[in-house]
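#lab-general

N.A. 3:47 PM
ok so I finally got the sequence cleaned up, no stray characters, all 202 residues accounted for. can someone with queue access submit it? mine expired

B.Y. 3:52 PM
send it over

N.A. 3:53 PM
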Amino acid sequence: MKNIDTAFRYVRGFTMLIIVGCIVICCYTLYKSFTAVTVMQDRIYILANGKALEAFSSDRKENVPVEARDHVKTFHRLFFTLDPDDKVIKSNVTKALYLADDTAKRVYDDLKENGYYAGVISGNISQTIIIDSINVDVNVYPYHFKCYAKQNIIRTTSILNRSLITEGTLRNVSRSDNNPHGFLIERWNTIENKDLGVQNRK
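B.Y. 4:20 PM
back already:
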């Protein structure tokens, strides 16, 4: 009887050990499965020219500095790139005004009232901008930025080079076709806009 009782205890203990081991293995398998699924959901494959390219998704926080700089760059490029064509000017400025608040609209209205755009058209003047650098402070919200750029004002006989420095803040807004980065420029202000030199055209 003692042997039977001892054998029963051994079998019961071994069975409990097997059950606990199975539970641990099942829990570990489920954990690893969920982890693998989460990792796979962060990856997408893009088919381009017959090749599968792997892309990774990430949180917006990781991309804020890059997107903020590109937003500021896009706004300045659209706002300050002018050609002697009324439709081109209106198209570029309209796109730019979607990216900023009424401070940019006031600057546009002032330039328009002072005949700046009419002078660009009548004088066959083209204006381009080259962004040197954009500093964005993402540690404090709304994000403060400062943009350093150079303008080239191309006339029939000369090219005027100007230095341009602006600053403002960036506020988060909903993304849209007109505002793909989801930022809005506020308190936009021109710190410096001075002549650097004139080059004669041959």
